[in-house]
Amino acid sequence: MRFSVKVKTRSKKPGVEKLDEGNFLVRVKEAPVEGKANEAVIKALAENLDIASWRIKIVSGITSSNKVVEIN
Fold first, then answer.
1. pTM score, two decimals?
2. Nearest Cα to 42, choosing from 13, 12, 11, 71?
3. Total count of domains within the chain
């Protein structure tokens, strides 16, 4: 399953918000440096969706705030 994710980095209130079918807004405290924000996005989605983080992969948008994420 693939869906779109909009990422807000350096957020004071981290969390995951479902915008509509297949679109999420993920807020993380980490800065987009050395992949730390991407790791935080995967961790936040895994906790919110109650699945293992190894099942989540960023397919597109590694350096962008708009990402496409796939769950295996």
1. 0.90
2. 71
3. 1
